Structure formats: structure tokens, C-alpha cells
Amino acid sequence: MVSQAQVRREFRSSRQGLLCLLLLASTLLREAYGIPARVLYQPEPAAASTVLSAQQAHAYAEVLKMRPAAARQWLKGAPSNAGTLLVADCLDITELLVSQDAARYEAVVEAQDHRLSTLEKSSEPGALRAYARAEIRLHQAAAQVVFGHEVQGAWSLRQSYQQMQAVVQRYPQYLPARKTLGMMQFFIGSLPESYRWFLKLLGLPGSVEAGLQNMRLAATQPNDFQLEARLILALLEETYYKKPEAALQLVETLHRQQPDNLLITYLLISQLKKQHRTDAALEAYRSSPSGPDYLPLPYLHHMAADLLLYQGQYAASTRANQQFLQHYRGQHYRKDAAFKLYLAAWLSGDATTAEKYRRQIDASGRTVLEEDNYAQRFFEDKLPLNRILTRARLQIDGGYYRAALTTLNSFQTLQRTPLRDRLEAPYRRARAYQLLGHSDSARLYYARTIALAGNAPYYFAPQSALQLGYLYQLEGQKNTARTYFKKALSYSKHEYKNSTDTKAKLALKEWE
């Protein structure tokens, strides 16, 4: 018998991967969980009444643009049915997850309970009512998990899964359910085994292959939520299957079509940042839509602070992170922001201010996300960073690869040099060479990093193994690539184990 304490402990452990997805959902706005199982109902086609009305569609478009007042205005004249309840809940959960305002949590959950009760009593026919019921229950699970109510969130997640499962079985042609079904199939199927057992205990197994198939159905055929399906699929393929060009091309096209859409602008900045295009990302940030009509999105300032740090604009980076912390009400990314404030002060030569921000890392925020974990580990290790290696890392992250190699030329290994720095130096060279397209040099320095690392608890060796797997995969050397992906999985403790293991596991699945 599994105790409630064990459920709390395991959900807290597995929450990192789940929370990453839920925080993605705070920008993609909606998800659902489910897999196909034995048929409980005779399949029925999705009727015309299952689509959103024109007013509901307008309201949902405003939700996606993050313009809550405009969305509510459209909902005032919308019919009182499942579509209106669903869009209203999308608006509530978006505002809650984006603001991370704990003071709003109870009111949002209470409104969700009221909507669910209304849907339960409704005799409205068609897939939309059943879909809205499962989606709103999922939104409730998201709110509960993000705000620390893990056991309640686990139960809501299970209910949502079972309900969405029934929607897919009864209405197999209803594409929005395919989208949400597929996303959760993919997510659960891609989790490391150490996390999946708990979700299986809840009756939530998964399948990467089936998930991708379902998402592609929803992304390639017209439906009310096709844009979501396209975005989710593109972002998953960019993150886990190394298809950055397709994801960036999609968000660039959407941004040209909808320059007033704050969600699309956020995704454009995020993609440009991930692809090391700092100048373009900052340009998009500075021209992003803003004003009283838009939902405040403080995380944009945190991203901008990173971009400015890459450029060596330490004062501007500090101002952007301070703006983020001033307006952000959540607990995630606070440690990461304090760490970046530390870096800006330290690299500027302000030791007193740097120490103040170093202490702030430990004093605020949570360690659920990998970025916050990394910052907390830096605080606890008390091992000073190397200024040359830190500058080189920031230059590489910003896309300034040749400048990073020049910076690395001034690094010298001495007898007293810590092991962490001995590993970081060849790893940074490897990253710069890889991103410049110099694969032979990259392989050389990645291999050197692995040879030096042994079982050291740093991410440089497992990341080197993962990148070597990708490099050999591109060259068609499948056996060698497989060896390195398995090696990446073999490291037991490091800062980015969850994401590294997920990527290595998915790469291996491509050959099964």
C-alpha cells in the first residue's frame, strides 16, 4: 500500500519534468493527458456543434494574444455553453500561470469547480462538452501542481486523463482531443524510468510514437486549436529532435502575421535565444507588444537579462532582472535571476554587490526547475567560478563563438586548478567548435572532457556524451551514436540529468 507521504515524495520528485511542461503550458495555455485504451463507447463522429462559435473563437484568439480584457468582452456576448466555459477557463488559467500569483489560486480553483459542476449537469450533446470537462480538470491539475498541492494535482490529473481518454474513444475524429492526448502520450513516454513508475501507478502510461502521431494529426488538419497543435509539435521537435529551423520558421511566420500577439512574440524571442541569435532576440524583445491591454509577462525581462549578459551589458542586464523580480509573483526562476545578478556584478568587478546577490540565491525561490537547481548548487558548492570560463560560456550562449575561443585562449591549467574548471575548459571549446560547424575539433574536445571527468558530478561529461551522440548521428554512424547516448544516460548525478536523460532516451528510441 502506497502511503500519502510516499505519494507526496514521489510526485515532488517527478514534478520537475511535469512542471516544465506546465510552465510551457502557461504560454501555450492548454494541455491534456490521456492514452487510448479498450473501447468503452461506440465511436461517434464529431458533429458540427462541437466547434467554437464565432464569438468564442474571437475570445480565444484574444487569450492567445494575452489580452484578457478583450477576451472577456467577446465572452459577454457568447452563448452560455461548453465553448464559453472552456474559453473562460483558458483565460483564468493563463492569467494564473503567467502571473504565478498565489493570492488568486483559491478563486481560480473555485471557479473551475463551478464550471465543472455546470458541465456535469448539462445535457449539451457533442464532443465539445466532454472535451471542455476534461480540459478544465486538467487546468485545475496544473494550478494545483504549480502552487504546491501535489496530491490534489495528481488526483485531478488522473481524472482528466480518464475523461480525455473517453473523449478520444467516443469521438475519434475530434482533433483537439488528439492534440492534447498526443502531447501527454509524448511527455509521459519520454520521462526517465525513475519518474514514470509513479505516473503508471496513477494509470498514466505513455507512448512517444503514438503521441507524435496524434499531435501531427491535430497539427496538419483544420480545427479550433490547430495553432496550438502546430506550436506544441514544433517546440517538442526542436527541443528533443534537433529541428530548430522548422520551429523558428513557424514562429517567425506567425509573428509576421500577428505582430500584436504577445504569445507569439514570446515564443519568437525564446527560439532566437535558444538558437544563440542574441541580437535578433533583443530586437524582438524591444519591439514586443505592450500596454494596459496586455497581460504582464515578467519572464520576458528575465530572458532579456540573459541576452544582455551575453553581450557584456552588465548594468542593463541587472536592470532587466530587477524588473523581472519586481513584477514577478512566482517562486520559480528566482534563484536563477539572483545567480545572473551575481554574475553581472561579479563580472563588473563589484565584489560587495556580487556577494549580496550570491546570498540572495539561497534566500528565495524553489529548486524545482533545473536553472534554479544549478544556481542553488553554485551557492552550496562555494567553489569560485573562473572568470575566463564564465565569460566564454556567456559568449557561446549568445552566439559569439569566435570571441569565446579567443577568450578561452587565455585560460591556463595550473596544478591548483579545480577539476570543475579542468573539465569546463575543453567542454566550452567543444561547444564553440560544434556551433561553428567544426565537427572534428568538437569531437576531439568532447572526448577529452569525458576522459578527464571520470565520475565527477558535473554536467560537462554527460553533455559531451550527448553531443557526441548527435554528431555521430548526423554522420550516419548509428552504432557509435548509440554508444554515446547510452553513456550520457550512465552518469548518476549532475545538474541537468533530467533533460539530458530525456534527450538521450528519445534519440535511442528513434532506432528501436
UniProtKB/TrEMBL annotation:
The keyword Phosphoprotein does not apply. The keyword Transferase does not apply. TPR repeats lie at residues 462-495. InterPro entries: TPR-like_helical_dom_sf (IPR011990), TPR_rpt (IPR019734). It comes from Hymenobacter wooponensis. This is DUF3808 domain-containing protein. Keywords: TPR repeat.
